[in-house]
């Protein structure tokens, strides 16, 4: 592989896949499954948590805990608006 190919495939800078909220206060949420929701959107729910300061791994584990046990308590470090978190989780099939 010549140097021009290496440069072409080199990662120039870290890519941020998640737009995190700019500011907010810590908040604790109790997350549960919606009993009559037609389809869970687990990936969407993980992004809701990750945008508020959790790592993707921690967000994934919290959503998995909700699915396995029916409930999880999550502390989010940066919540700009609690009603926005509740609404976004609601569209994903979760109650907060």
From TrEMBL:
It comes from the Bacteria. Keywords: Plasmid. This is Uncharacterized protein.
């Amino acid at each position: 592989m010549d140097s021009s190919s290496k440069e072409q495939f080199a990662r120039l800078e870290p890519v941020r896949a998640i737009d995190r909220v700019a500011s907010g206060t810590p908040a604790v949420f109790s997350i549960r499954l919606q009993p009559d929701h037609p389809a869970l959107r687990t990936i969407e729910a993980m992004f809701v948590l990750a945008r508020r300061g959790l790592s993707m791994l921690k967000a994934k584990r919290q959503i998995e805990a909700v699915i396995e046990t029916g409930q999880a308590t999550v502390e989010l470090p940066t919540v700009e608006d609690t009603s926005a978190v509740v609404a976004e989780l609601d569209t994903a099939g979760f109650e907060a």
